[in-house]
Amino acid sequence: MSNGNYIKVILPLRLGWEPVYRVPASLDPGIGTRVRVCFGKGVYTGVVSELNAETEVPPSKILDISSIEDNLPSVTAEEIQLWRFVADYYLCTVGEVYKAAYPAARTEGEEMTVLRMQKKREALGLRLEKRKDSLSRARKDSVKERLSAEIEAIESELRHMDIQDSPVIPSFPRIDLNIHQEAAYKDICTAFKAGKPVLLHGVTGSGKTEIYLKLAARAISEGRSVLYLVPEIALSRQLEQRLGAFFGPLLMTFHSARTQAGKLKIADALRNQPGGIPYVILGTRSAIFLPHRNLGLIIVDEEHDTSYKQSDPAPRYNARETAVVLAGIFKADIILGSATPSLESLYNCKTGKYALAKLEHRYYEGSGADIEIIDTIAEKRKHGMVGSLSRKLLQRISRTLENGGQVAVLRARRAYSPYVQCENCGDIPKCSKCNVTLSYHRDSGRLVCHYCGRSQVFTGICSKCGSNLVTMGAGTQKIEEELSAAFPGVTIARLDSDSARSSAYEKETLEGFASGRIKILVGTQIVTKGFDFKGLALVAAIQADSLSVQDDFRADERALQLLEQFRGRSGRRGMKGLFVIQTSQASHPVYKMLQGLDGDGIGKMMAEREAFGYPPFSRIVNFIFKDYNEPRIEAMSSALAREISRQVHLSVTGPFAPAVDRISNQHIRHIRILVPKDKFQAWNKKQLKDILEAFEKGKNYNGHIAIDVDPI
Ligand code: ADP
Ligand code: ZN
Ligand code: ZN
User: Fold this and answer.
1) Buried residues in 600-623 as b, exposed as e (16+ CB within 10 A)
2) Which of 177, 368, 395, 592 has the most CB atoms less than 10 A away?
3) What is the pLDDT of residues 76-103, one digit of tens each?
C-alpha cells in the first residue's frame, strides 16, 4: 500500500533493493535528501530515492528514519538517474554506485561544508603563524627542517582550500582552425544537431585539442558547462596548463588522488555555482560522478585508453560508455576522440549510433615519424646485438643525440630482470603467494612479486640446489644501465611505476625531458602517453613482441594502439621523426598494420571479431571467482558454469584459470559469457545476475564472485 509517510532509501551497500522507512511528521525530506537510518546492525547515511513509497511490509516492521543530514548536500535527480543506469548496465547495485560516487571518506568529510572549511582555514592560518614564529627563533638545523616542512604542508593545504569567488566568464582567446579542422568541426556540429555522439578519429598532432577548445567555448557561451575527461591527470599536465590559459577561473581539475579538501571544493563549487555561470572540469573517470549542473558538452579524450574502465571494485564501469549516458541525461553533446579509436567506438560509427569525424592531416605538415623495424633474430646472427640493444639502434640514437635531438625508449617490463634462473637445475623462483615469477630489482637488491608486492633479498643462490641464480631478460632498469654504458656522460632518466612512485620525481623527470636537460628517457607504457616534447626525434620500442603475445583477443588492438600512440610522440612541430621497433617477430601483422602495408588492418581485425562473435559484435560478461580454498573454487566455479549453461542459451567458456591464477594466496577462476547485442541483451544480462544471486544464496557462497560487464 502507498503511504505518504513512507520513503525508499539508497544505502551504500551491496544491496539489491531499497528499504522503506517512515518519516516522522516533523521531518520533510525530498528526493535526494541525505538521511541517517538504521539497517541491520549498522547506521548509514542514505539517499532518499522515492517519496510516497508503496510497500508490502507491515507497518509495525518499518523503522523511522533517525534524522535528516542537514549538513550534507542533497543528491540531484540526475545523479540518481546515472547511478540507476550504471547499476543496471554493469549488473551491480545502486548502493555500490552511490558508494563510489560518495566514498566513505568523502561522506564523512563532507560534513565539512563551506562553513566548516572556513573554520578550518582560520585554524590553519593560526597554526601557520605559530610555526613561522617558531622557525624564526629555532637554532637547531633538525628543528628548522621540521618546521619548514610543516609550514610547507600547511601552505599547500591552504592553497587547496581556496574557494573561488564566483568567477565571471572571461573572453577566450581566438581559435583559428585550419581547413581540415574547420571541415571536421562542421561535421561535428551537424552531428550534434542531430543529437548524435561523435567519434573524432584524428591522427596525432592533427589538432584535436583545438577543436575541443572551440566546442567548449561554444558551450560556455551558451551558458552550459563542460566535462573534459582524460585517462590520467599526471600525464595531462601540459593539457591542464593549456586549458588553464584558455578557460582561466572556470577550469577545475579533478582526479582521484586529489586531496579530500580539493574534491569537496569542486563538489561544493558545482552545487553552489552561482546562477548561470558554467564551469569546465578536467577530470579522470570518476569525475562523471560529480554533482554536475547544466552540462552542455562532454569530451572523452584518448577514448581508447583502458584507464577509463574500473575493474575493481564494483561498479566495474567504463567512463567512456557511461559518459554517453550522462550526456543523454543532460541532453549534452558528447565527443570521443583518439588517434587510435577503440573497435567498440568504430563499431558504433558503423551501426550509426555515433557519427564519425576525421582528421587525417597533421597540423604541422611534413611532421610524423617513419618506421624502421629491426629484426633481433637476424641481428643476433650477424653479431649485431650488444646486450638488449642492436648496433643499428645504438647508431640511430647516437646520430640523434649528435643532432641535438632527444630519445624515448619503451620497454614494457619494469625491474632489472623480469625473472632469474638457476644455472644448474633451471629453477625459476616464484612468489610463494602468487603464481608469478619474481623480478629482480637491482637498486634494492631484491626479488619482487609484481602482483602482491612481496619481496625477498636476492642472495644469488638457488634455494633448490645451492648453485648460482643468474638474471634473465632485461627490464627498464637494465635497459637504462645498458644505455648508460653505451652513452657515457649523457643524461638518462627512467620512468616506470618503480621510479614514479613519488609524483615529485615524475614531475621533475617530465620537466627535465621537456626542457631538454634529460636526453634519453627509458620507461614502460607511461612514455607512450600524451606528451608533446619538441625535441623528441627518436622513439624506440625494445622487445616489442612482448606487447602482442598475450593470450587475449584484444592483444593486437592494444599493441597497435600503444605503438601508434608512441609513434605520435616523435616528429611533432614540423620535424621528421623516427620510430624504431626492435622485435624478434619482425613479420608480425601488427607491424604491417602500423606501417599501413596491410590495407585495411582495422577492417580485418573487425572481421575477425565478427567471425568469432567477440566484442564489439557481442558483450562479454565475466564471472570472476576468488577463493583461498582451491578445491572449493574448482567445485563452485564448475557448478555455476553448469547452472548457466542449463538456464541460458549463450556461449559459456570456462571455468578457466587466467594467466595469473593465484594472487596473494587467492585462487582465481573465470567464466566468460558472450551476450549477443540483440533485443534480448538486457534480458540475458538480467538472467545472468539472477542466476548468480540464486547460486550464491543456494550454496551460501557469498562474496567470492564478481560480475564484470565489458571487461578489458
Ligand atoms: P592532437 O591532440 O590531435 O594530437 P594537438 O591538438 O596537440 O594534436 O595539436 C598539435 C600541435 O598543433 C599543437 O602544438 C597545437 O598547438 C598545434 N595546433 C593545432 N591546431 C592549431 C590551430 N588551429 N592553430 C594553432 N596551432 C594549432
Ligand atoms: Zn638450482
Ligand atoms: Zn606475490
Assistant:
1) ebbeebbeebeeeebbbbbbbbbb
2) 368
3) 999 999 999 999 999 999 999 999 998 7
Give me the pLDDT at residue 167, please: 59
Take residue 180 and report the three cell numbers written for it.
Answer: 581540415
- What is the per-residue pLDDT across 275-333, written as a single tens digit (0 to 9) for each? 668 999 999 999 999 999 899 999 999 999 999 999 999 999 999 999 999 999 999 99
Do residues 57 and 73 make contact, with C-beta atoms less than 8 angstroms apart?
no
**Residue appearing with cell numbers 602495408:** 597
Q: What is the C-alpha separation between 366 and 533, in angstroms, rounded? A: 17
Check if the beta carbon of residue 109 is closer than 8 Å to that of residue 161. no
Residues in Cβ contact with 78 at an 8 Å cutoff, skipping those fewer than 6 apart: 292, 329, 330
No. of H helices and E strands in the chain? 20, 30
Ligand 1 proximity of 210 Cβ (cutoff 6 Å): yes
DSSP state of 434: S
* Backbone angles phi and psi of 658, in degrees to 5: -70, 170
Q: Global pTM? A: 0.88
Are 306 and 312 in contact by the 8 Å Cβ rule? The answer is: no
Distance 427 CA to ligand 2 centre (A): 5
In ligand 1, the atom with minimum distance to the C-alpha of 202 is: 3
**What is the predicted pLDDT for the residue at 71?**
83
Per the CB < 8 A criterion, the answer to whether 21 and 51 are in contact is no
> Model confidence over 684-712: pLDDT tens digits?
999 999 999 999 999 999 889 999 999 98
Interatomic CA distance for residues 651 and 612, integer angstroms: 11
